[in-house]
TrEMBL record:
Residues 1-17 have a biased composition (Basic and acidic residues). The chain crosses the membrane at residues 30-49. This is Uncharacterized protein. Keywords: Membrane, Transmembrane, Transmembrane helix. It comes from Bradyrhizobium shewense. Residues 1-26 are annotated as: Disordered.
């Protein structure tokens, strides 16, 4: 019984409860900012992983006793 009272008109003297209007631009800005931050974090992680992999390969080469561990890039 009380649920029908909540769904119907408010009692006299009460203001009707209305949902606040959300601005779609604010929602999009937050989503875009989150997406940009996520892309930046992924980019930094990818760069860091490549850099650490290269350093690990260099250390493996040096620890094996080799003296010529420089990466030779092919001519283009």
């Amino acid at each position: 019984m009380s649920t029908s009272k909540l769904e119907s008109k408010p009692e006299p003297g009460e203001k009707p409860k209305s949902q606040p209007k959300l601005q779609s631009g604010d929602n999009r800005r937050g989503a875009i900012a989150g997406l940009i931050i996520a892309i930046l974090i992924l980019g930094v992680g990818w760069w860091l992983a490549r850099d650490l992999t290269a350093a690990s390969k260099m250390q493996d080469c040096l620890m094996s006793g080799r003296s010529n561990c420089n990466v030779i890039e092919p001519a283009r």
